[in-house]
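Appendix B. Chain record.
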Amino acid sequence: MDQIVECVPNFSEGRNQTTMQALIEAVTSTANVALLDHSMDPDHHRAVLTLCGTPGAIVEAAFRAVQVATDLIDLRTHVGVHPRVGATDVVPFIPITGTTMQDCVQLATQLGERVGRELEIPVFLYERAAAHADHVRLETIRRGGLEGLAHRIASDPNWTPDFGPPRLHPSAGAIVIGVRPPLIAYNVNLRCTDVDVARSIAQAIRHSNGGLPHLKAIGVELRSRGMIQVAMNVTDYQVTSIHTAFQSVMTEAVKRGVEVAGSELIGLVPHAALDHAAAASLKLDRLDSSQILETRIAETMLRKDEPEPTLSAFLAAVAEAKPTPAGGSVAALVGALAASLGVMGARLSQQSDSTIRLLELSGQLHRLIQEDSDAYNTLRDAYNIPKTHPDRPRIVSVALQRATEVPLEIAEAACEVGRYFDALREKVKPAVRSDLTVGFTMAIAAAQSGLSTANTNINYHINHDLTHLFQARIAKATANLDELRALC
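Structure tokens predicted for this chain:
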């Protein structure tokens, strides 16, 4: 398959094996889709399927599973500790191979429109697919449970569903569909029966309360096992590793005199996330993903079949009389080159943590080279939709959001790259400092270029809530850039 998309639907059913089997059969009966993993938990009363396939097939498989869940799951009799608003609670799409975030936004939109139209379930688009600022975070949509969501739908125009009727389905509730990067569902179990202990630990470590960045956490009771649990979502393992999450829970548990019983992964985990955890737990000075035998073999075989586009080919493409690739892609390339110079400096000064993070930033900026072109092309296509088309404003809004998000992400990543150079220049030999000065200058240029594009695109937004969110991020990135300039 040249294009592979992952989908991880979550269902409000963790006890009925017959229902679980019906969900599995709905997925496995779809051509060009593979079921990678499935799990169910009676305390959470929740099931999770992990599937992958071609873009068109993955949407069909997801719809079939949603249809089965709507027929077999009744929220009116559902009792479980996990937050939820639907029989099919959430359906995220994740780009894997040959696809972008924007491609997956289109898939989420297709599925949402069909679910709303054929099953008459209200659909809210979230994360990268969200067309409204209030709908970006999943926990915001779930706030107050079914009752809270029903009240917002009935009383607040900002909470009109993206698709489907403006009311909850009698038995299936609502459904949240969206696009996100890979997420790790990771839980730590504690030998204790007081659920307030788990809740206090979750409150102490989660991002929203000033804890670990990109970590969501709740405390729940595992009545069937006589334990409590800190249930976590690690939304960016490159910033907060699962090892860091585990250590934080254990530290807080020790403070409360509670013993850790163990931990568990729900669904699948990226190989790189385990690399990070292994490096941290073993206190390795350096562990690159290229040192993993299977990774090196896979990368080598892939390069034989699909050679990387050359730099000369990219330069030729930029020089063509076409709108893409252009400024944003060039800025991302410059930022990626700056990060690579930083990796060189970090390795020469034996700064293993800096090496790992700069490698990640270089990879992120490399990916954004193509994503910038994809975002521009999608926005151009959206503007070409006839103005009389009823969905044009929403499609333009989603496309414009991504066209602003990508250059802003370039600027944010480039600023982070730049921050490493100031520390590294003092730790390398004088002969290398000039190279790091080049990298530092390039990082500043990439950040300034990304901010310039983001500032231009934000002027076209009509969603004021979304504009305010972008303005806050732009202001923060601008302040970071000013700090870097001061260090030149």
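Further analysis of this model is presented in Appendix C.
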